[in-house]
Amino acid sequence: MPLIDHCPAEHQPQLRQRWEAWCGAVGADRVAEIEALLDAERAQVLARAFVGSDFFVQQCGRHSHWLAALLQSDDCGLAAPDLAEIESEEQLEKILRNLRNRVNCEVIWRDFAGQWDIPTACARLTQLAEVCIQAALDWHRLKMVERHGEPRSREGAVQPMIVLGMGKLGARELNLSSDIDLIFAYPEPGQSDGDKPLENQAWFQRLGQRLIKSLDTVTADGFVFRVDMRLRPYGDSGPLVSHYAALEDYYQTQGREWERYAMIKARPVAMSGGDGGVAAEAAEELMELLRPFTYRRYIDFSVIEALREMKTLIQRQVRARGMTDNIKLGRGGIREVEFIAQAFQLIRGGREPDLRVRNILKVLPLLEADGHLPAGSAEQLWDAYLLLRRVEHGLQAERDQQTQTLPAEMARREQLAFALGYASWPLLAEKLDAARAIIEHEFDEVIAPPEEPAELTANDQWQLLWAGCERNADRDSWLEKLHQAGFQPASQALDCIVALHSDRIVSALPASSRQRLDQTMPLLLASASEVGEPLLALERVMPLLRSILRRSAYLVLINENPPVLAQLLQLCAASPWIAEQLARHPILLDEMLDQRRLLAPSTAGDIADDLRQEMLRVEPDDLEGQMEALRLFKQSQSLRIAAQEVTGALPLMKVSDSLTWLAEAILQQSLALAWQQMTEKHGLPGGASADDMRFAIIAYGKLGGLELGHGSDLDIVFVHDAEPQQYTDGERSIDNLSFYTRLAQRLIHILQTRTLSGPLYEVDTRLRPSGNSGLLVTSLAAFEKYQRESAWTWEHQALVRTRPVAGSVRLGEAFEALRVTLLCELRDAPKLRGEVVEMRDKMRAHLDKSGSQQFDLKHGPGGIIDIEFIVQFTALAWAHKAPAIVRYTDNIRILQSLTEAGLLPETEAADLTGAYKAYRSEGHRLALQQLPAQVPADWFPAERENVEQVWKRLLG
């Protein structure tokens, strides 16, 4: 193979491999054509291109005629696509991507051949971006006009869209794998004139979205350009496109120094709408509007301090990262050259219009000519900058990736040197070192001699990241910092941080609040890096942070209490439910101040006493205040219980106990409030007293079984044993039944009303006799009659998990005695078995979400409901001979009682208990993650098998 002779021995294996791959892709005829075109010079260039760029090899393999064209021409040109021939969006995307890949291949070839210098290569890449943006913009605008008409101002003038290119695109300095930073703008609000009109804002937003998609989406042909819109006003949180008045208002009132710095390179790169003159005038108007923001009308010494801080930040970042191999961000890198030029432009561009040029290579001689740089330094910086940019191109050519980091492997370094025309890596490295030393020296001289930065602490590094997170030039270093700190994926974490930093609410903060936020964020990031899942903690704490920005006393609380911050992040990472509660109710942060109390379990008496104390702080006649106090107490206690659960301070059964005790305490206090309001209005019911209201709340389901979970509803029934025909003794007397019905309604109102803090509990009263068609409040005698004469078997099953939880103690004891009596009645076992199985089958048919991929913890075969039905069947079938088995209402103790009574083998009771605990523990964990109670189908195989075996033995 003739190419081998033009390649050093160490690169020949790679060259041979890539050449053979290319030959196999294009066929013998094309290979022969290329070999016929090769002379010694061309063979040398081809060897460099194949060694230096896998991307080049791949693309020339896919498009076999490209290589011949490069060999036979000095410039393959760049013609815009003919939009009239493009019929679909897919066709547009393919044409643009092929154009991009061809131009990139030509730039790589001309660079490695030494035919184009860096300014020429960058100009061609910039031209490529302009052509692609304009083509996509024009094509999509035509489609938008067909559907929605032309966007017009309120006076009827057609509105163009102007695309501002920022950064390297604006300065015509694009490299091989640059992102393009864009800002979209249009002159005036208004509406389009089609059959389906849109407001101009929506019209241009859709146009912008479609433009970005055509450029940015990765298809089988790759992408055209990665599009970054974060330099627009308010960043990611701002509108995608803005009209001129909105832009002017933003930059006049909220524009920051780094945005002025970025705006130096802003340039209209595409425009569409109206005739060419209209669009051009609109583009010029936009630049005139932006000029006063970018360049002050005087020598702007006020910006010096901001630039000095920016410079110090750059120095400290470099020191923190130690990225000596990064030719952009490291010492003496590309970014430092850009800073040298743009610092002088910001300071003096207002009085010296000649400095208002975007391209850095044009700025440097002007700075020297005006005496801002020492004689001879402009040429040195020029040469150094060009070398760095050429090496940058060589790095990015290999795999079409955006990188500025020199490879660590010596073999890759030698390949890079060969591709760029150097005999060895040491020769290229020597030139790089010299160039970077020149840049470093000039950078240190800008504005003021640098002070040696102190050794950076971890908090300093997080401060740097927070302060500079929006600077695209530093994105790679921020990603590396986040990656090293455990934020995975780092890009998602950085986007999360940038979204907050650029949020309008942050921009509008008073100085004191902004200062507190700037103190909080480094602490928060450092603390998040210490939890098990840093990204999860960061994302979940963000809504809380946004909710307290305007109440910055909470930021002080966090800043001054590091354990609170650590605990906060740990809890947010463990549970989105906790994070959501804190975001909705930041006052709960106060609960976290006392760490010992937060994680110390409470007894039922503790919870009830604490609630009584809280209620005493509220005026007795302030119903709204009382309802809010109940809700705050419930939220704070729920937070404590969840915190105790996720930190392991409370086991599963104790979590349910605590949540149940909390509900009982709130029911008792809510009933007391309702009783007070009703008796003040109507007096005491006949036969009732302050000590015995002759009314009780009966709990069913999870509350009755002491098994409440986070967010559980309350299944309750109301009973009384007063004489219905008697009356209350107040001035506005009503009969007893009306009184107790209104009492129940008042109680439900207290529990369910959605105040600013939400409801206390959702209440379900459908388990009362006759369900929704029955009376809301039932007399004990009527309850007994219904249970004996009309109740279905499933209602008797529900009675197993029923107990009084609030109200008259005497009536509660009477209900409990009745419950035991009803459950202990002798039943027809075969009939009972059949009805229980029938009900279970109906429930499974309607509710079971199990499938080939998942198991429904509650309703699936061998799941929670099967265990509960087994317990309920055995209780109903055997209580007549062992009343002790219905003494308790929770499944675990009923199973224990069945074993003690000799009715259920100890092994079976243990299997059911173990499965029940395992299911409920996983269910609690999923609830705190706000996930459905479903797990992979292969989970809990032994537990499910054990439950199904017991089911088969007892229920067939």
Key features?
single chain, 956 residues, alpha/beta, Beta Polymerase, domain 2, Four Helix Bundle (Hemerythrin (Met), subunit A), 6 domains, 5-stranded mixed beta sheet, 6% strand
Give an overview in words.
The protein has 956 residues and is α/β, with parallel strands linked by helices. It has 6 domains: 1-68, no CATH class; 74-294, 2-Layer Sandwich (Beta Polymerase, domain 2); 295-450, Four Helix Bundle (Hemerythrin (Met), subunit A), CATH 1.20.120; 457-593, Four Helix Bundle (Hemerythrin (Met), subunit A); 645-823, Beta Polymerase, domain 2 (2-Layer Sandwich), CATH 3.30.460.10; 824-956, Four Helix Bundle (Hemerythrin (Met), subunit A). The protein has 41 helices and 14 strands. Strands 2, 3, 5, 6 and 7 form a 5-stranded mixed beta sheet that branches. The longest helix has 31 residues, at 118-148. The chain is elongated.
Secondary-structure map with pairings?
Layout: H1 12-26, H2 28-37, H3 40-52, H4 54-62, H5 65-72, H6 89-113, H7 118-148, E1 151-153, E2 161-166, H8 167-170, E3 180-186, E4 190-192, H9 200-216, E5 227-228, E6 241-243, H10 244-253, H11 257-263, E7 267-272, H12 276-294, H13 302-321, H14 334-348, H15 360-369, H16 377-399, H17 410-419, H18 425-445, H19 458-468, H20 475-484, H21 490-501, H22 504-507, H23 511-528, H24 534-548, H25 553-560, H26 562-574, H27 576-584, H28 595-598, H29 604-616, H30 623-646, H31 652-682, E8 695-699, H32 701-704, E9 714-720, H33 736-752, E10 763-764, E11 777-779, H34 780-789, H35 793-799, E12 803-807, H36 809-823, H37 829-847, E13 854-856, H38 864-878, H39 891-900, H40 906-928, E14 934-936, H41 941-955
Enzyme class: transferase
InterPro entries: GlnE (IPR023057), GlnE_rpt_dom (IPR005190), NT_sf (IPR043519), PII_UdlTrfase/GS_AdlTrfase (IPR013546)
Region (Adenylyl removase): 1-451
